[in-house]
Design a protein that fits this description.
Elements lengths: L1 E4 L6 H7 L6 E2 L2 E2 L5 E5 L1 H27 L2 H6 L4 H11 L9 E7 L14 E6 L6 H15 L9 H20 L6 E5 L7 H15 L4 E5 L4 E2 L6 E2 L8 E4 L3 H4 L5 H8 L16 E3 L4 H4 L4 H9 L11 E3 L9 E6 L8 E5 L2 E5 L10 E5 L5 E3 L5 E11 L2 E10 L9 E3 L1 E3 L14 H8 L3 H16 L11 H5 L1
Parallel strand pairs: 4-22, 7-8, 7-11, 11-12
Antiparallel strand pairs: 1-4, 2-3, 5-6, 5-19, 9-10, 13-17, 14-15, 14-17, 15-16, 18-19, 19-20, 20-21
Helix pairs in contact: 1-12, 2-4, 4-9, 5-13, 6-7
Length: 479
């Protein structure tokens, strides 16, 4: 794993904007700087894949254990009692369905890193409910590779796998609903002004459409709870059978209509004698994701697997009140904290970083053995810390995105840096970097033209319609 400095492509900010990355200026910084990338060997990618598979299986085992002892949810994970039944019910589905994606945050410096501790991937947490950076991970960084040629391949089959995931999951949902799904709704909050939620939701919409389903967007605030039947409808009064939400469950349960979501789920699959569907709404991601997106998962994982050979991928992690006195170097996190907020890194009495905002914490804290990210330097000698985002689509490792920050805690002012694989066969065809005229043309396209080009970009980046049917990702092809 190497951080490589390069010359950025001309007009790179406008270029990635033309590819859909509208949130390019992040707190005054360039979210996609285009002047560096991370290079991995196939061996390193295969190690990350194996580690991810192991940790995912441990997460499954932990979910099973928690569902068999649900008091853990209410007493240790700050989950309300009214959500427990549907968490267990959604977990117990056979075959499993209701989850499309998730992203682990991983600390790893490469197999040849001078610090031996950074040669083993360590998993910080699981963004299992509402992970973002989909567009840049799935599409934009692949286009970067095609246009720059910096590497032979990339660990990235994200969009292709999303299409397959929607197809499998919605086919299973139709069996339970008892009818064909006429439309899959997608929702995010109207309060997001950056465009990040809208773009990430759009990627999921495009994948669902490519899988063969009709889709419709609706703001979270526009979902109606019918006074007549206490079911969820769109603004036109049409029942919402299936919906994906880019809104975390821990916020949903605090909403005025939150508890009714869970009451409504009890009736999924019910029909009147006339055949009319009178049941509840299916929500993606499934309620059991409340177990995995919760930072309290990792003390449970450590307790269950610290003596397991797979425990090498985990950091010693405890509920704050159960942490041993010998743990003096640690990271303290609020259980529901997001975007690097309300975290304290300590080395003995020294505070390395404190991002306390007071926004999170009433739900409790965990402490995790201190494991700082690998530190690099930018062109000016300033420190940069890189965290790996390991994407899982429908339960399998699917790709990676890397974010950098100037501080050890990755915050919402981080930048995105593409990656590539240095060895093995070249798995793509080079394409020219667009001219300024072509970029401006893309930025002023009509909606119909933009949609057509977007699908072209998706099929090119992800091999949705490969002429030879060959998997484009070298790691995938070797499995």
């Amino acid at each position: 794993m190497r951080r490589v400095s390069i010359e950025p492509r001309p007009y790179h900010t406008k270029l990635v904007q033309s590819q859909g990355l509208v949130y390019t200026l992040n707190a005054g910084a360039d979210y996609w700087p285009d002047d560096r990338y991370y290079s991995f060997t196939t061996e390193e990618i295969e190690l990350l894949i194996q580690a991810g598979k192991d940790v995912f299986q441990m997460c499954c085992d932990a979910a099973e254990a928690i569902c068999r002892d649900p008091t853990i949810m209410t007493k240790k994970m700050a989950i309300p009692e009214f959500a427990v039944e549907q968490i267990i019910s959604s977990w117990d589905r056979e075959p499993a369905w209701g989850s499309v994606y998730g992203r682990f945050d991983v600390c790893f410096g490469g197999l040849d890193h001078p610090d031996e501790r950074l040669r083993t991937p360590k998993f910080y947490e699981f963004n299992a409910d509402t992970p973002t950076s989909l567009l840049e991970s799935a599409i934009v960084q692949w286009k970067w590779l095609e246009q720059t040629g910096h590497g032979n391949d990339q660990f990235n089959s994200i969009f292709e796998d999303l299409v397959k995931a929607w197809k499998r999951n919605l086919e299973e949902a139709e069996k339970v609903l008892g009818h064909a799904i006429e439309c899959v709704y997608f929702t995010a909050s109207s309060t997001d002004t950056s465009g990040e939620d809208a773009i990430n939701t759009t990627v999921l919409i495009e994948a669902c459409s490519a899988a063969g389903w009709n889709t419709e967007s609706i703001f979270l605030q526009d979902i109606q709870l019918s006074v007549k039947d206490q079911r969820f409808h769109d603004k036109a009064g049409k029942h919402i059978d299936v919906i994906f939400k880019l809104w975390p469950w821990e916020w949903m349960v605090e909403e005025e209509k939150g508890e009714q979501c869970f009451k409504d789920m009890v009736n999924i699959g019910e029909h009147a004698k006339s055949g009319e569907y009178v049941g509840g709404t299916v929500w993606f991601e499934a309620p059991y994701k409340m177990l995995w997106s919760n930072k309290a998962l990792f003390p449970i994982l450590w307790d269950m697997f610290k003596d397991d050979p797979r425990g090498k991928w985990l950091l010693p992690t405890y509920f704050e009140h159960e942490a041993p006195e010998t743990l003096t170097k640690f990271c303290r996190k609020a259980i529901f904290a997001r975007e690097g907020a309300d975290i304290i890194l300590k080395d003995g009495e020294k505070v390395i970083q404190d991002t306390t905002t007071g926004q999170y914490g009433k739900e409790g804290y965990i402490v995790q053995e201190l494991c700082q990210l690998p530190k690099y330097q930018d062109a000016k000698g300033n420190p940069m810390y890189a965290v790996l985002g390991l994407w899982f689509i429908d339960g399998d490792p699917s790709g990676m995105g890397i974010r950098e920050d100037a501080t050890p805690v990755t915050t919402n002012t981080s930048t995105f840096v593409p990656h590539s694989i240095s060895d093995g066969e070249v798995t793509y065809e080079r394409e020219a970097v667009p001219t300024l005229e072509e970029i401006d043309r893309a930025l002023t396209m009509t909606e119909e033209e933009e949609t057509a080009q977007y699908f072209d970009a998706l099929s090119s980046a992800q091999g949705l319609f490969p002429e030879d049917g060959r998997p484009y990702c070298i790691v995938r092809a070797s499995e």
